[in-house]
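This section describes the prediction task in plain terms. A model, or a person checking by hand, is given the sequence of a single protein chain and must write out its three-dimensional structure as a string of tokens. No templates, partner chains or ligands are provided. The sample shown here is typical of the held-out split.
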Amino acid sequence: MRTKENDVAKASLDGQRELATRPALSMAPPRRVFVGAILAGFAVAGLVSLGLLGANEAPNTDDFRFTRGVEFAPGEEARLRGHLTLLAGQPDRLVRIVGHTGQQGDASANAELSDQRAAAALAIARDIGFPEARILSVEGVGGGAPLAMSQDMTDREWERSLSRVAITDQARP
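The expected answer:
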């Protein structure tokens, strides 16, 4: 006579036999997990090398040229305005403004001129509404931080290239 308990016991015994005849399952993760992890690593490395990931961490410096005194070279004031407007829209970026001059002439006059160049860039930043709380420093360094001279430049061209204001932006810590 068949009973419900006999059917349950038989099913249980059949299940135990099936488990005993199956090959043991490995506890190691499947190979596709390792391949996926390796491919993800390559993808991240590729983004970093292209500058698409982690790019906001490195400071970025752009130079804006002057012709004489505090007069911007043609197109440079508009380029500076555009650059600062772009940075104003990125609330995580902080800015340093540094005025520079050439190395010829009186050192104190060069220091004063570089301060005036930094102040001119600051005035543009204020004019476009750049938040002053995000401006870390405004200073002039005279001729104390010259650019490297390339081999194809004359001395005069090199001296002219030193007349600039440098805007460095960096991520907020």
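For orientation: Helices lie at 4-21, 31-50, 76-88, 107-127, 155-161.
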